[in-house]
Each structure stands twice: as structure tokens, then as C-alpha cells.
């Protein structure tokens, strides 16, 4: 597995976005720390890069996310719409209770397919791809 450190977000906690190549058409974006207005643009830029590189499946792993605000959710919704229009699928995994509540309150838990962890994603999505 190749890991690429895309950079540090400028927040009060150390945050990072790591891209993990599972294979040529599947990319994992691993978020950590606080994802908010200050750094959600970097997430949007990475999604655009993946779209332009021909990625067919994007998994956003939120295991290490401490907090996510509405601008981060907005970035994910925009990414979902943009990727779907291009025939690319976006999935989420490993969301914590705070993020799950945000998704439930906004109804986004019905829009996004959310897996408990990467293993579940691999078993359900990659096994059928």
C-alpha cells in the first residue's frame, strides 16, 4: 500500500489528508483531526484531482476524524454529486458518533453509503467490482 501525505490542515489540532492507493481505480482518502471551513477546500481539491486521474471508486475513511462541521459535510456532498455525474462512486467508512449524528440530522446518512470500516467496504464493494 502506498501512502501519500497530502499536507497538514491549518487547524488547532494536527489534521491531515492521506491518499492511499488500493489499486488503479480505487482511492482511499483518510481524514484526521478537525475537518472544517479552514481545511475543507483541500478535500475538494483532492476529490477534483482524483476525478481527473480516472479513479472509479473513492472511499473516505473518517476513523481519525475528531470533529466535522457543516462546511466539511458540504464538501463531501459536492464531491458526491461531482463524482456521481462522472460515473465515479463515493463511499464513507469508520465515522465516529459526532459525525454520524451530523449525517443523521441532515439526512445525509440516507445519501451516502457508509461502512463500519475498510474491511467491510472491501468485502461488500471490492469483492463485487
TrEMBL record:
One GO MF term attached to the UniProt entry: anti-sigma factor antagonist activity
InterPro entries: Anti-sigma_ant, STAS_dom, STAS_dom_sf
Similarity annotation: Belongs to the anti-sigma-factor antagonist family.
Species this chain originates from: Trichormus variabilis (strain ATCC 29413 / PCC 7937)
Protein known as: Anti-sigma factor antagonist
Annotated STAS domain residues: 26-129
Pfam families linked: STAS
Domain of life of the native organism: Bacteria
Amino acid at each position: 500500500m502506498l501512502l501519500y501525505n497530502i499536507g497538514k490542515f491549518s487547524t488547532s489540532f494536527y489534521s491531515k489528508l492521506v491518499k492511499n492507493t488500493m489499486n488503479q481505480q480505487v482511492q482511499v482518502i483518510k481524514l484526521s483531526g478537525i475537518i472544517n471551513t479552514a481545511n475543507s477546500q483541500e478535500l475538494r481539491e483532492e476529490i477534483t484531482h482524483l476525478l481527473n486521474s480516472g479513479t472509479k471508486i473513492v472511499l473516505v475513511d473518517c476513523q481519525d476524524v475528531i470533529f466535522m462541521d457543516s462546511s466539511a459535510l458540504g464538501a463531501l456532498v459536492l464531491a458526491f454529486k461531482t463524482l456521481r455525474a462522472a460515473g465515479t462512486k463515493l463511499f464513507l467508512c469508520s465515522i465516529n458518533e459526532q459525525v454520524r449524528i451530523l449525517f443523521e440530522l441532515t439526512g445525509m446518512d440516507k445519501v451516502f453509503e457508509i461502512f463500519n470500516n475498510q474491511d467491510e467496504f472491501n468485502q461488500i464493494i471490492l469483492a463485487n467490482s
